Amino acid sequence: MSGEKKKKRDYLHPKSILKTETPYCSGCQYGVVDRIIGEVIDELDIQGRTVFVAGVGCHGLAQLLVDTDTILALHGRAGATAGGIKWALDEDSVVFTIQGDGDLAAIGIGDTVRAINRGEKLTTIFCNNAGYGTTGGQMAPTSLLGQITTTTPLGRDADKTGLPFHVAEFLATLPGVVYSARHCLTSLATYNRTKRAIKTAFMKQIDGIGYGFVEILVATSTCWKMSPQEGLKWLEEHMMAEFPLGEFKDTDEVVIKHQLG
């Protein structure tokens, strides 16, 4: 492929992403996550059979950008909602959720685990910004020790509020999960690794193998009260130290064979 053609291809607007103004704050990486998802949907040619279940939170604004059939679930209930949709449709449907640390790791952890226990073949994109963004920057299950939030103004204290929850590692221990990974978006290289992981998670569902999970460390500078540059630096120096990047599980063994439809 010539350099000119490759450049044109790389900068095309994904057809699965609506051409509209971003609903996110300056410096927020949620829009980058949405673009990657759009690119993957286009490359897999699954737009017409894909349903997106949005969790409650800033990440849920993706329903304004991702051009597929979409439903907004109750707070924490995206896993249960997605499972119901998957069962109601035929086995060729592709159902995925985008959820945040409050939506999935707090109120929704039970729904997520139960969906996995039922052997649901779904895909979850988990945006971890170490706090509640939409409701004012409170401490979340993934908030770091010492992190200042509106509910931990002196910094998170393990004795009082416990330890950060490592979701990708935890879910990797469950038999129903066939793929679990954590990535970030701090460079072109990490962008490409994140995209490969999301595509792998989708393929685990498309191939009928099982539940695919990708956690993405996301900088949200407004929530952290930082500039976009400071937010990226804080993510690299602090979040990546607490939450190591990589793949925690990758198997092609089908755990439960469901006959849908």
Keywords, separated by commas or semicolons:
261 residues; alpha/beta; 7 strands; 38% helix; single chain; 10 helices
Topology:
Blueprint: H1 3-10, H2 30-44, E1 50-54, E2 69-72, H3 78-88, E3 94-100, H4 101-107, H5 109-117, E4 123-128, H6 158-161, H7 167-172, E5 177-184, H8 188-206, E6 211-217, H9 221-224, H10 228-242, E7 246-250
Parallel strand pairs: 1-2, 1-3, 3-4, 4-6, 5-6
Antiparallel strand pairs: 5-7
Helix pairs in contact: 2-8, 3-5, 4-5
General description of the model:
It contains ten helices and seven strands. By secondary structure, the protein is α/β, with parallel strands linked by helices. A seven-stranded mixed beta sheet has the order 2-1-3-4-6-5-7, sandwiched between helices. The model has no long low-confidence stretch (mean pLDDT 89). The protein is 38% helix and 16% strand. The N and C termini lie far apart (42 Å). It is globular, with a radius of gyration of 18 Å.
In which order are the strands of the major sheet placed? 2-1-3-4-6-5-7
The tally of helices reads 10
Q: Unreliable segments (pLDDT under 50, ≥5 consecutive)?
A: none
How much of the sequence lies in strands comes to: 15-25%
Helix content: 25-40%
Please tell me what the overall shape is.
globular
The N- and C-terminal alpha carbons lie at a distance of 42 Å
Q: Which class do the helix and strand fractions yield?
A: alpha/beta
Mean pLDDT: 89
User: Main beta sheet, described?
Assistant: 7 strands, mixed
Which radius of gyration do the C-alpha atoms yield? 18 Å
Order of helices and strands: HHEEHEHHEHHEHEHHE
Count of extended strands: 7
